[in-house]
Amino acid sequence: MYVLYHFPYSQHARRVHSLLEEARLVYRLEHVAMDQGDYLTANYLAVNPNHQVPSLVDEETGVKIHESNAILRYLCVKHALDNWYPSDLVQRARVEQWLDWNQCRLSPHVVGIVLNSVFMGEDGDKDAIARSHEAMKELSEILDAGLADRPYLAGDRATIADLSVASNIFQLCLADAMPKQANINDWYARISQFDGFQKSLPT
């Protein structure tokens, strides 16, 4: 049994939720009310001292792990989910590249736009919003080019890279900032059909 500490408006938590569903792993969600400060309680800090979601507890092994992409890798390796985390060297390299690109390049600007324009309201940093919208012009072109000759980021099948990046694209939709490029829109439409992705979305 896995316990996923989760908040539905966290794109990082949703990507893990998606994989748990797609792989049909046994889990339960433990809601962390980020909007009410639950992430700063002593109980939660004992699970994740970074006071963020998600966190995963593997009750079988006792492992506590945070950082969403690390959790995705852990689940894939433990359960030999080669379809989601391919062992083929070329495909694995693409998966790793897009996971890191998503976290290092895309994610900060998703936060810059969505946190400040949706969740912070009038207190949001308008300069941060503008900077991130400007950055998205380049980033969306990079993502679109990466999908120009393949249906998914690593090849012919969806992988954890797709779940990871798609969680950020959904987040941008909250701020009406979905990229407009055709390859991205076609790819996102395909990912949106996955049952696990649908079940991860906030209701």
TrEMBL record:
Domain GST C-terminal: residue ranges: 88-203
GO molecular function, one term: transferase activity
Assigned keywords, A-Z: Transferase
InterPro entries on file: Glutathione-S-Trfase_C-like, Glutathione-S-Trfase_C_sf, Glutathione_S-Trfase, Glutathione_S-Trfase_N, Thioredoxin-like_sf
Record Pfam families: GST_C_2, GST_N_3
Matching Gene3D superfamilies: 1.20.1050.10, Glutaredoxin (3.40.30.10)
Claim: Repeat is one of the keywords in the record: no
Domain of life the protein comes from: Bacteria
Residue stretches making up the GST N-terminal domain: 1-83
Name of the protein described by the UniProt record: Glutathione S-transferase
Organism for this UniProt entry: Aestuariispira insulae
